[in-house]
Design a protein that fits this description.
Blueprint (H helix, E strand, L loop, with lengths): L5 H4 E6 L5 E6 L16 E5 L17 H10 L23 H18 L10 H14 L4 H7 L1
Antiparallel strand pairs: 1-2, 2-3
InterPro entries: DNA_brk_join_enz
Organism: Cirrhinus mrigala
Protein name: Integrase
Length: 151
């Protein structure tokens, strides 16, 4: 199989009862970019963010509710088993390329800076997010094994 980026490798979603969490499993055809990496059988479990009456905006960021809504809204035009699909044009419903995912991430970073009224750093690239995420995980005392596995 063809190597897939980390965001494209996980498409096998299993939602648990009562939206408590979602399990992402590696797609069977996934081939790691580094074949010695044990990510072929990696399972990622994301816990739901409890609904907070004092801050309803947290619901908008819930890693369980958001993919469920996304899958429901894209179901009628989806033509791929991959998690991320094109939502318009001739490619509508087909699997999204890693370049398109990269553009979406950079756009999301820029939008987040704009929403806070901050200038976006020059040269923001998708690859920058891996380093930032690893540093944030280390600062929050994640184990080196977990950081390596996520990277």
């Amino acid at each position: 199989g063809k190597p897939l980026s980390p965001l494209r490798q996980h498409s096998c979603l299993e939602f648990r009862p009562v939206n408590s969490h979602v399990v992402l499993r590696t797609r069977p055809e996934y081939v790691p970019m580094v074949t010695t990496t044990p990510s072929r059988d990696q399972v990622v479990t994301l816990q739901a963010i409890p609904s907070q009456e004092d801050d309803p905006n947290l619901t908008l960021l819930c890693p369980v509710r958001v993919p469920r809504i996304y899958l429901e809204r894209s179901q009628h035009f989806r033509r791929s088993g991959q998690l991320f699909v094109c939502y318009g044009g001739q490619q509508k419903g087909k699997a999204v390329s890693k370049q398109r995912i990269s553009h979406w991430l950079v756009d999301a970073i820029r939008t987040a800076y704009q929403a806070r009224g901050l200038p976006c750093p020059l040269g923001v690239r998708t690859h920058s997010t891996r380093g930032i995420a690893a540093l944030a995980a280390l600062a929050n005392e994640a184990s080196l094994t977990d950081i390596y596995r996520a990277a």
